Amino acid sequence: MISLDVESSGLDPSTCSILSIGALDTDEPTNQFYDECQIWDGAQVSDEALAVCGFSKEEIGAGSGKKSEAELIRDFVAWATDRPQNRTLVAQNVAFDLGFVQAACKRAGIESPFAHRTLDIHPLCWMHMKMRGLKPPVENHRTGINSDFILEYCGLPGEPKPHNALTGALWHAECFSRMAYTKSILPDFSTFEIPWMNETS
Length: 201
What we know:
The chain has helices spanning 47-53, 57-60, 69-80, 94-108, 121-131, 147-153, 165-181, and strands at residues 2-8, 18-25, 28-36, 89-91, 119-120, 138-139, 142-143.
């Protein structure tokens, strides 16, 4: 599977641009992808979105020297289609990342190789907690499970700020592996104990 994280200039994939893509093959974690691009002409830019990923308006503009979104998405698709047969995407709130990838492919005039069937670590965390007899958190009448909660639940440190797409993909992949297989797949996280490793059923 492909662990994916997309940083964007806003929340709407039809009006906002991809800024960076981070990904790795969960079956071969050293096989990773990261690249950045400038926004497409006319894309909307949210100050809040830039604050999350740490890019400045100058770094994402036409004068940045970065490749176009179309060039980035073509490079990512080329990387992803050179993977094993299973290209299922896994992420936290994976619909967001997939939406931007699909929209970028459409703008670039290429076919997306990714299916709508994906794996989201949010419901995986909810189910994992229920199977351990734990009560998933609820805030404001809805699930309180977010990225920070999942990292803590999986025994991992918080992501560094500002957010980086490759860092996000690494964290997603590690959380997925811990909850799905009770094992660490990335050396940088091997010293962090899996909280339920020694539990007995």
